[in-house]
Amino acid sequence: MLYGKEHVRRYQETDGAEGHDWNNTTVLLLTTKGRNSGKPYTTPLIYQQHGDDHIVVASKGGDPDHPEWYKNLQANPEVGVQVKGDRFKARARAADESEKPELWQLMTRTWPDYDNYQQKTGREIPVVILERVE
Hints:
GO molecular function, one term: oxidoreductase activity
Radius of gyration: 14 Å
Mean pLDDT: 96
Protein name: Nitroreductase family deazaflavin-dependent oxidoreductase
Distance between the termini: 32 Å
Oligomer: single chain
Organism: Nonomuraea zeae
GO cellular component, one term: plasma membrane
């Protein structure tokens, strides 16, 4: 099973032929700029499409702290996204209170463990909307 850096490498090399379909769901690659280093970091994330937007969840498996990629996009919301062979720039933002319930349901349908992760942590797990800008 693909994981971490190996997942990113195989996904990039094959335009998602390896790595897009994963554990009965779909994965995109999100590239953020390190908030301290300024270096690019690419993370494979489960996603779903919602209209023209792509939706991801900053769960970190229910950890008490946000994932690093989420902290990076809070500092700089301009991100890179790869879905299969489609590479594009996007603006990332957390779903607001009116948007989140519908998007949370969308994401838990594809990855039911998100509900478990939320129960496991005292932090509100953000749902992130990736809006294509080019």
